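Side project, low priority. Logging it here so it doesn't get lost.
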Amino acid sequence: MKLKDIQDIFIKEGINEDPRGLNAVEADLLKRKEEYDALSSKKKESYDIESLSNPYYDSRIIYGDPDIHAKAVLVGIDIETQELLLAKNLMNSGRKIDLVIAHHPEGYAYSTFHSVINMQSDILNNQGIPINITEKIVSERIREVQKNVLPKNNERIYDAAKLLNIPFMTAHSVADNHVASFLQREIDALKPVYLKEIVELLNRYPEYQHATKIGQAPFILCGSDFSRCGKVFVDMTGGTEGPLESFEKLAIAGIGTIVGMHLSSKAAKEAEKHRLNVILAGHISSDNLGLNLLFDKLENKAGKLEFIECSGFRRFRR
């Protein structure tokens, strides 16, 4: 399958699994189109045209001819120059690698990924927090992340891919949308009473079983086995960890339990302060689940691909 077709499938399936819902995604893209149309001709020259059809700034082709065909794909949760050098060494040793895919954004996808955090306004609104509040608290988080990203040397990975001539792309929110929507559906269908039931559910999936074997099992951060769940919110997409203010608002909106990938110590204290239960499913394991669900759809359309695992990625087919 051509690289551009892989990208198109990722974006289409990312939209299909977007927890905001299709109407919110379409409204987001329409807003961008209106902003673009209002620009002067000079400003349009530097506008990110892809963002008019791709809602996810953190999921895109970083380097490579969109028309190249890819059958053998090296995939890692984090891909930096050392992984590209590893790929080149494998290629020089006779291993066929047509494409490298990173989960976490790099290059231009990292420079602009703060814009993906806008998703959280609608996601939190869907949990019952008024949109005027979610927009304000999320905008503060966007500025914070943007300031942290700005001084980074974000072209290193692009330069490495170009010099080594290795096609390279990222698949971040398109995969995170899958794990968030999948687990929300599974938990809603289960209707758990106690937190331990959610942990038991997670441990049915091979990604979390593998994580348990290497000492990274899902666990209850706030609450106990027999703490009652209440309404469960799976919070696993939207670029990065949400704003601290969201925990109080979620508790007021009636959320009883948050299931996430990871949580900073500050965020954990804030969740506990507002009596929220928190289950941490695991970061890399949840990233793997999202990627595997996405790759299953890709293979349904492209046929079986050869996946070379590296940097924490493990392929589990369903």
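Brief comment: The beta strands are 61-63, 72-76, 99-102, 168-170, 219-222, 231-235, 255-260, 277-280, 306-310.
Revisit when time allows.
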